[in-house]
Design a protein that fits this description.
Length: about 190
C-alpha cells in the first residue's frame, strides 16, 4: 500500500525567516513604507533610540517591495534548506544574525546617510557558504572560487559603475561572512 505524500515543515529556520520577511514586506507595502522605515531599515539614527539597536538585526526582514522580497526569498528557499540540513538550525540562525549585524555595522560606518534593508547580505552569505559543501582539508573548492569571482566580482563591478539603490556593499559583506563561516565550519568538521 502506497503511503500518501505529506507536506513537511522541512526547514524551520528558513521557512520562519521567509515568513517573517513576507509579513514585514506586507506591512511595509500596506503602510506605504512607514513600518519598513520604523522597524526594518537601518540607517542614521540616534544612539538613544532603542530601535537603532533592534534594526541592526531586523533590517534583513524588510524589503523595498515585492520584487525585492521575491528575489531574496527564492535564493533563501533554494539554498537555505540544504544549509540548514548540513549545519543545523542553531548555526544557521547564528549565521543569519551575525550577517545582519556585520552588514548593518559596516554599512553604517561606510554609508552613514544611506538606509539598508533586505535579506540580500544573508543571501550572499548563503551563496558562498553553499559552495563549501564539498570542502576537504587542504583544498579550496573550485565552486567557491567561481562563486567569488562571479557573484562578488559582479557586486564590485556594479558598485563601481552603476548608481542605484542596491547595496553592493551589503552583498560583498554577506559573501565575506559566508566565506569565513564556511571555511571555519568545514575545517572544524574535518578535525572532529
Amino acid at each position: 500500500m502506497k503511503k500518501k505524500p505529506i507536506i513537511t515543515f522541512n526547514s524551520p529556520v528558513i521557512l520562519s525567516f521567509v515568513l517573517i520577511c513576507f509579513i514585514a514586506t506586507l506591512l511595509g507595502v500596506i503602510s506605504g513604507g512607514t513600518i519598513t522605515k520604523l522597524l526594518f531599515m537601518t540607517g542614521r539614527s540616534s544612539p538613544k533610540n532603542p530601535l537603532t539597536y533592534i534594526r541592526l538585526f531586523t533590517h534583513v526582514f524588510g524589503h523595498s517591495g515585492w520584487e525585492h522580497f521575491i528575489g531574496n526569498a527564492t535564493y533563501l528557499l533554494l539554498l537555505g534548506p540544504m544549509l540548514e540540513e548540513k549545519y543545523g538550525p542553531k548555526i544557521l540562525t547564528e549565521i543569519i544574525a551575525f550577517t545582519a549585524l556585520i552588514t548593518a555595522l559596516i554599512h553604517l560606518i561606510l554609508f552613514p546617510h544611506a538606509a539598508l534593508c533586505g535579506a540580500s547580505g544573508v543571501v550572499f552569505a548563503f551563496i558562498v557558504l553553499a559552495s563549501f559543501t564539498g570542502f576537504k582539508d587542504g583544498e579550496i573548492p573550485l565552486t567557491f572560487i567561481l562563486v567569488v569571482v562571479i557573484f562578488i566580482g559582479q557586486q564590485i563591478f556594479e558598485g563601481l559603475t552603476i548608481q542605484d539603490d542596491i547595496s553592493n556593499t551589503g552583498h560583498i559583506i554577506g559573501g565575506a561572512v559566508g566565506s569565513v563561516t564556511g571555511y571555519l565550519l568545514n575545517k572544524k568538521k574535518i578535525r572532529d
